[in-house]
Sequence to fold (82 residues):
Amino acid sequence: DLRKPGQNYSGLFAAIKSIGLSHRHCLESVWIVKTVLTSTRVRDLLTPHVDANDKLLVSSLGGDWATFGLDNDCNRWLLENS
Fold:
């Protein structure tokens, strides 16, 4: 959760895009990234790009998932990358 209104998070978004083989921004506060890095390493790479009052969760995504309301592009990306 990016909690500072008006903050420029372009550096964070660029860092997210750079850590993986592929990425998808399906929800406002959720990015899904296909990467070979550990969750700890991803967190460590992204932390310098967030403010102290922001919140960051990094987790692995297994093959068991379900969606509601996502567009077809996001669903297709999930099918191809999980």
Notes: Residues 3 and 24 are 21 Å apart (CA to CA). The mean pLDDT is 89. DSSP finds three helices and two strands in the chain.
